[in-house]
């Protein structure tokens, strides 16, 4: 059995209580960052143990908020070290992660355990896409995991155990820049036309033209390169996500295992 997880976004209206909680959580993360940097702590277990008494003197929230803040603080520090940046990092955005012990999911709303015997209820906004996951959760087919929330959205990861050990058939995937072809021995054939080649060609030409500005307007060229490189990356990622979703839905419908070619190094 393999656990499959998919994060599903829900919208909501943040009130003053929610904003206060998000702001306090950001302060907790920065407090943990400061504590870890001063004492050169990189272990989650050690930071959680050492910082707790100090954390408790400043906040009276449920203990698991401290655990979550420690986890995020160490992730920020790790990313900071990986990029070899100077100074001390800082959490600026308002967001938090809550494990299932800090919240309860009701389908149309969630209840956050803010303090002992004190709860915060948030009504969720959703459409047909989210409704499918809610119905499957109600039927017991899915479980909810650690949520991530900011000022406008709550992402709930739904988990499902899938048996991949005994598929009825296998489907082989061949990936090209203009299409993706899937073939099985049944035979089932799935061909997906992609826009990857168009995206790469379009942005290759745009970026090449921008690079010509470097000699005359280096700052403008740098800004535009960052803009269009990021846009190309997001468009490619979105297209790949759509392709992958189509393949998985097709394989699931026909109860097939998926055989992929080695894609390491593909651009």
Automatic annotation (TrEMBL):
This is Transposase. It comes from Candidatus Terraquivivens tikiterensis.
């Amino acid at each position: 059995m393999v656990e499959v997880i998919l994060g599903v976004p829900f919208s909501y209206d943040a009130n003053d209580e929610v904003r206060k909680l998000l702001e306090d959580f950001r302060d907790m993360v920065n407090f943990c960052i400061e504590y870890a940097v001063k004492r050169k702590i990189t272990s989650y277990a050690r930071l959680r143990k050492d910082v707790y008494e100090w954390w408790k003197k400043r906040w009276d929230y449920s203990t698991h908020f401290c655990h979550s803040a420690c986890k995020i603080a160490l992730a920020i520090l790790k990313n900071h070290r990986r990029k070899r940046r100077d100074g001390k990092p800082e959490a600026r955005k308002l967001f938090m992660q809550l494990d299932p012990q800090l919240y309860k999911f009701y389908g149309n709303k969630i209840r956050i355990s803010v303090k002992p015997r004190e709860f915060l209820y948030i009504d969720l906004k959703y459409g047909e896409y989210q409704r499918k996951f809610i119905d499957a959760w109600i039927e017991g087919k899915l479980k909810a995991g650690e949520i991530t929330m900011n000022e406008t959205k709550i992402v709930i990861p739904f988990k499902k155990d899938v048996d991949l050990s005994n598929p009825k058939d296998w489907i082989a995937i061949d990936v090209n820049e203009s299409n993706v072809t899937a073939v099985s021995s049944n035979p089932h054939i799935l061909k997906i036309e992609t826009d990857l080649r168009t995206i790469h060609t379009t942005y290759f030409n745009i970026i090449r033209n921008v690079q010509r500005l470097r000699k005359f307007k280096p700052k403008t060229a740098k800004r535009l390169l960052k803009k269009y490189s990021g846009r190309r990356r997001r468009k490619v990622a979105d297209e790949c996500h759509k392709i992958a979703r189509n393949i998985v839905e097709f394989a699931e419908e026909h109860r097939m295992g998926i055989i992929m070619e080695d894609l390491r190094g593909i651009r």
